[in-house]
Design goal:
- The protein is of the alpha/beta class.
- The protein has twelve helices and 15 strands.
- Strands 1, 2, 3, 4, 5, 6, 7 and 12 form an eight-stranded mixed β-sheet that branches. It has a seven-stranded mixed β-sheet with strand order 8-15-14-13-9-10-11, sandwiched between helices.
- Helix 1 runs parallel beside helix 2 and helix 10 runs antiparallel to helix 12.
- The longest helix has 34 residues.
- The C terminus is likely disordered.
Amino acid sequence: MRLLVQPGDGVQPLVDAIDHAKSHVEIAIFRFDRQEIESALVRAIERGVSVHACIAYKNRGGEGKLRALEMRLLDKGVTVARTANDLVRYHGKYMIVDRKELFLLAFNYTYLDMEHSRSFGIITKDQELVDEARKLFEADCKRQSYEPGLSRFVVSPLNARKELTDFIAKTEKQLLIYDPKLGDPRILRQLEELSAKGVDVRAIAEVTRTLKFESRELGPMRLHTRSMIRDGEHVFVGSQSLRASELETRREVGIIFKDAKIASRIMETFEDDWKQSVPGEAPRERKPPAVKAARKVAKAVVKNLPAVAPVLELVVKNVIGEEAAVQVDTSALEETVIAAVKSAVEESVRGAVQEVVDQNGAAS
């Protein structure tokens, strides 16, 4: 098994795997804006490789992009299937190469997830895991029911609660957790009971209530992985957070395995992130009202922005020229522009709200 750590390992391991594929590439997609991967899939088709993409029927705010991706891939000869709409989301992300190698990812095929977010991926040639992933892929492509056949292969909403609850229950000394949306009441009680017994339970997570074990929000970057390391050897990496919706109403995919080397590397990353999440040993202060308000406004503004890519394409043509031998990734530019707008709005609103708060404090 191999571990991918984001940011750091980037997109190249995925591109290399597609470029070395000899017969098949099967890829499940929830979000996608990496032109490098799209180009590699096209190159594979041109070499005679069978490429099959299973694309989610929707994601929040990006359904149009998914449909555009479908059309582009179909035009290049990729076999494209769309998931059913019976679940809230089809959120899993994985790729199978030559039906011998599985890339199980906690991150999407996006710049944001790979370049600006803490996340992990696992590459394995364990044939049982590969075969089970193919079984799920085929079922979701054909919109057929899937029956879990391997406890190590964790699939929501079918076996995820049982397998992850069992994984946590077997902890003896230490459980380290990365989770953007840690919130399931039953699992939180389970974690608190472990902590009360003297187990070192720590989470880098966003939580929904005050906990009876240590938790911190990731400081230097966005958190996107869902991962656990148990007793320095056992690992879970996947797409499902420990909250009810991702365990019970969505398609999420993860794997459980034992690998001391991979566990050690994730633990080292966790400890580094833990130290950076809070200065020194001081408890993390609650975000002031100005910060909360600014983030909400910035999120709303960005959500309602008109499509940026067409404008960027027009600007690029005017500035560089249509005939120039320069390839510009407007998807990447679009993400950069949106991030800049969000940052600028957040900063402006935070300053305005803080000024009001300060004035009211001075008046009182």
